[in-house]
TrEMBL record:
InterPro entries for the chain: Aldolase_TIM, Alpha-hydoxy_acid_DH_FMN, FMN-dep_DH, FMN_HAD, FMN_hydac_DH_AS
Swiss-Prot/TrEMBL keywords: Flavoprotein, FMN, Oxidoreductase
GO molecular function terms attached to this record: oxidoreductase activity
CDD domains with a match to the protein in the record: alpha_hydroxyacid_oxid_FMN
Protein name per the record: Alpha-hydroxy acid oxidase
Protein family: Belongs to the FMN-dependent alpha-hydroxy acid dehydrogenase family.
EC number(s) stated in the UniProt entry for this protein: 1.-.-.-
Keyword Flavoprotein: yes
Keyword Oxidoreductase belongs to the record: yes
Domain FMN hydroxy acid dehydrogenase, first and last residues per copy: 1-378
First-level EC class: oxidoreductase
Cofactor(s) recorded in Swiss-Prot or TrEMBL: FMN
UniProt xrefs under Gene3D superfamilies: Aldolase class I
Length: 378
């Protein structure tokens, strides 16, 4: 493991171990992938101020996100089909996050269900909601998240219709995935992945199958999913979702100052500045480039979090310096999971934690809660 020092190292190992169609599903963005690339690249333009001869003992990365104590300002982002990067992926990632003291967010489009994840964790996790046309199904999902003691609902606002990723179309990725001869051959080249997958009962969208009307098995899942994302979803819906949920609400997918102000008005507890990891509107600006304006627009009324392109602890520090109370990683933990299961997610978090700690110290700060714009070289 001594050769696995960066998130990029985990990505390369995942590329070898995860079947191409699922690795590509994680490692892709919409259309030209311009926004996907910008998310990562724009971090490199932000420079740090090196400070010296400052006492750097007793450092702390501890802070809070929506009032919950976190060991560092990093949460695992909701990602669909996580259980296809590695068998039982959501359960393993949730356990790794819990042990690391950071929040785990379960996607509506997960393979393992809310109840599966609750059965292997001891602390509350967060649940991400896609609002489907079938509102009874949505209400039921919220009730299940409540029953599982989830401590925050993350409402994803940027996927009323699906952006297109060319790699997924070419690989035949759908729900459920198409098993062409080429895909089966590719899977056969990854015996670890296959053995783990054959050893689990959890190979379908367990939040949906058996819960949504008319989706009793895999054959009906594909058409159901295709038609269920609700293009009519609007700000009015946020009110009933908030009321039905009754707990902490985070709105995910805000990339515009005007929308950020609207979100603050709805009484959400936080927003996530996000373009869905460059998977929706190709041509949109990177999350990190929009963060300062959105922080300014919200003016302290609600917490601002950010995701997209975070690949190191340095990126986390830059986001915090630009006003984010918390950050999320999507692909970095998926690469860890695909590479080495739970251990890989733990390693991804440890890599980021170490980089964040060293960077913070070399910028002359001992506590993450003291980090502000003064660490940036303007
Ligand atoms: C996602 N994302 C996502 N978001 C969401 O709200 N619900 C979901 O089901 C998914 N599914 C999903 C699958 C995969 C494979 C990826 C990579 C991403 C978006 C995710 O929550 C987050 O916004 C981005 O992943 C952040 O960018 P990075 O960290 O991956 O660069």
């Amino acid at each position: 493991m001594s050769h696995l020092l960066t998130i990029a190292d985990l990505k390369e190992l995942a590329r070898r171990r995860v079947p191409t169609m699922f690795f590509d599903y994680a490692d892709s963005g919409a259309w030209t992938e311009g926004t996907y690339r910008a998310n990562e690249e724009d971090f490199a333009d932000i420079k740090l101020r090196q400070r010296v001869l400052v006492d750097m003992t007793d450092r702390s990365l501890e802070t809070t996100m929506i009032g919950e104590k976190v060991s560092m300002p990093v949460a695992l982002a909701p990602t669909g089909l996580t259980g296809m990067q590695h068998a039982d992926g959501e359960m393993l990632a949730a356990q790794a996050a819990e042990a690391a003291g950071v929040p785990f967010t379960l996607s509506t489009m997960s393979i393992c269900s809310i109840e599966d994840v609750a059965s292997v964790t001891t602390k509350p996790f967060w649940f991400q909601l896609y609002v489907m046309r079938d509102r009874d199904f949505v209400r039921n999902l919220i009730d299940r998240a409540k029953a599982a003691n989830c401590s925050a609902l993350v409402l994803t606002a940027d996927l009323q219709i699906l952006g297109q990723r060319h790699k997924d179309v070419r690989n035949g990725l759908s729900a459920p995935p198409k098993l062409t001869l080429a895909n089966l051959f590719d899977m056969a080249l990854r015996p670890r992945w296959c053995a783990a997958m054959l050893g689990t009962q959890r190979r379908t969208f367990r939040n949906i199958v058996g819960h949504a009307k008319g989706v009793g098995d895999l054959s009906s899942l594909s058409s159901w999913t295709a038609e269920q994302f609700d293009p009519k979803l609007s700000w009015d819906d946020v009110a009933w979702i908030k009321e039905h949920w009754g707990g902490k609400l985070i709105i995910k997918g805000i990339l515009d100052e005007e929308d950020a102000r609207m979100a603050a008005k709805t009484g959400a507890d936080a927003i996530i500045v996000s373009n869905h990891g460059g998977r929706q509107l190709d041509g949109a600006r990177s999350s990190i480039s929009m963060l300062p304006r959105i922080v300014e627009a919200v003016d302290g009324r609600i917490e601002v979090h950010v995701d997209g392109g975070i690949r190191s602890g340095q990126d986390v520090l830059k986001a915090v310096a630009l006003g984010a109370q918390g950050t999320y990683i999507g692909r970095p933990f998926l690469y860890g999971l695909g590479a080495m299961g739970r251990e890989g997610v733990t390693l991804a978090l440890e890599i980021i934690r170490k980089e964040l700690d060293i960077t913070m110290a070399l910028c002359g700060k001992r506590r993450i809660t003291d980090v502000d714009g003064s660490v940036l070289a303007r």
